[in-house]
């Protein structure tokens, strides 16, 4: 038998954006339901981006949610900067104030904490929600639960927090969204291994391309190798990967382990505009993709959740529709500013190494920019 329910905000997706939004609303007495197609184990086990900038950390404090990062962050991105290996030589580059106040916090840790707090405080999450369908015109969400029952949720608003490939964005009629994208022309081979990262982040610039080791927990790291868009994981057996990492890092790595995950990640930047349609609002990766080099993905998702939650609170508690009406404009202004620095740092870190992509002139420009970064004259991002 089909079921019908009612809430104020239906949240599609239990990632950083959706779970942060759910916690913000719950703490302000606004009913919401989070619907997630994957199981709880799957959601809590996804190893993805692992950094929050200082502004994002501060937002959790403003909402009384310090506990989701305090005591759980791995490492400190602060005072001494970050090690950068250039042609095998170690240098330190100074972080900007917002980066220095940030933390390394693996996404699965943050998500696990957000879920725990949300459920502890009486939140409603529906894991294993299959075949989700949205009607933005009427603000209705349909899905099939784990027992096979079709559930219909009517709401005042739908928050689409289900990522770049989710159902939220595709529920918007053709011709409404304008997509702005930039393809950088190369990819990363991203790999996960049970190897601790100490320090939490090390990056390397080499004529063969960019590489990095970034913490994903106390005993786990994500490794990255710049590679061609046409490469496949099968072309990179473990021994070849470790050899290439050591070449680009300029020294033997202290530990090795089998890679438990390998994938090719094209480096691109995307912004969809507007970020709302009727009563459907897009948050996080459903609305924008930022280069992973910038380490801004989780922080941008959190910013969207903050803006949308405050707008809903103004509408529900004070009858003021203004912030909801300007949600897209407010978020897009912030996102485009973030894209400026994201594209800049991506090009600097990649052009400074492999000259075959942008040429020797751009390589020398990037090397000069690296010198300025290391001197503290400019600010870069660290993921």
Overall 3D shape: globular
Q: pLDDT under 50 segments (min length 5)?
A: 72-79, 378-383
Largest beta-sheet characterization: 8 strands, mixed
Secondary-structure class: alpha/beta
* Spatial separation of the terminal alpha carbons: 47 Å
Q: What is the number of beta strands?
A: 18
**Helix-residue proportion:** 25-40%
The string of secondary-structure elements, in order, is EHEHEHEEHEHEEEEHEEEEHEEEEHHHHH
Kindly report the oligomeric state of this protein.
single chain
How many helices does DSSP assign?
12
Cα gyration radius (Å): 21 Å
Portion of residues in beta strands equals: 25-35%
What is the typical, i.e. mean, pLDDT? 91
What would your notes on this structure say?
It contains 12 helices and 18 strands. Strand 4 (82-86) and strand 5 form a beta hairpin. The termini are far apart. Helix 1 packs parallel to helix 8, helix 8 (297-318) packs antiparallel against helix 10 (327-351) and helix 10 crosses helix 12 (360-375). The strands form 3 sheets. Strands 1, 2, 7, 8, 9, 10, 16 and 17 form an 8-stranded mixed β-sheet that branches. An 8-stranded mixed β-sheet has the order 5-4-12-13-14-11-15-18. A two-stranded antiparallel sheet has the order 3-6. The longest helix has 25 residues, at 327-351. It is an alpha/beta fold and 383 residues long. The radius of gyration is 21 Å and the shape is globular.
């Amino acid at each position: 038998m089909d079921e019908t329910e009612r809430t104020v905000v239906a949240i599609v997706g239990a990632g950083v954006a959706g779970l942060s939004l759910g916690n913000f609303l719950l703490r302000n007495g606004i009913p919401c339901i989070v619907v997630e197609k994957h199981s709880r184990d799957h959601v809590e086990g996804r190893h993805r981006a692992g950094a929050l900038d200082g502004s994002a950390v501060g937002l959790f404090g403003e909402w009384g949610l310090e506990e989701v990062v305090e005591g759980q962050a791995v490492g400190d991105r602060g005072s001494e900067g970050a090690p950068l290996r250039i042609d095998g030589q170690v240098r330190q580059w100074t972080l900007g104030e917002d980066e220095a106040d940030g933390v390394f916090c693996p996404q699965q840790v943050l998500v696990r904490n957000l879920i725990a707090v949300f459920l502890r405080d009486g939140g409603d999450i529906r894991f294993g929600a299959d075949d989700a369908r949205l009607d933005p015109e009427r603000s209705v969400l349909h899905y099939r639960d784990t027992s096979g029952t079709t559930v219909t949720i009517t709401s005042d608003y739908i928050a689409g927090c289900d990522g770049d490939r989710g159902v939220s964005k595709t529920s918007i009629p053709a011709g409404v969204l304008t997509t702005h994208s930039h393809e950088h022309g190369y990819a990363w081979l991203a790999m996960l291994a049970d190897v601790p990262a100490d320090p939490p982040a090390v990056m390397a610039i080499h004529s063969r391309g960019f590489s990095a080791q970034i913490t994903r927990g106390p005993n786990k790291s994500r490794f990255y190798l710049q590679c061609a868009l046409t490469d496949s994981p099968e072309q990179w057996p473990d021994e070849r990967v470790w050899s290439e990492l050591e070449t680009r890092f300029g020294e033997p790595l202290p530990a090795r382990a089998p890679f438990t995950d390998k994938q090719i990640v094209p480096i691109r930047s995307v912004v969809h505009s507007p970020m709302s349609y009727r009563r459907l609002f897009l948050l996080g990766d459903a609305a924008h993709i930022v280069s992973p080099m910038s380490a801004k993905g989780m922080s941008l998702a959190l910013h969207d959740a903050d803006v949308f939650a405050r707008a809903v609170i103004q509408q529900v508690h004070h009858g003021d529709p203004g912030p909801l009406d300007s949600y897209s404009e407010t978020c897009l202004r912030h996102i485009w500013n973030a894209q400026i620095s994201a594209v800049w740092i991506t090009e600097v870190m990649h052009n400074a190494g492999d000259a075959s992509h942008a040429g020797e002139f751009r390589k020398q420009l990037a090397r000069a920019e690296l010198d300025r970064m290391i001197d503290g004259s400019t600010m870069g991002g660290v993921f």
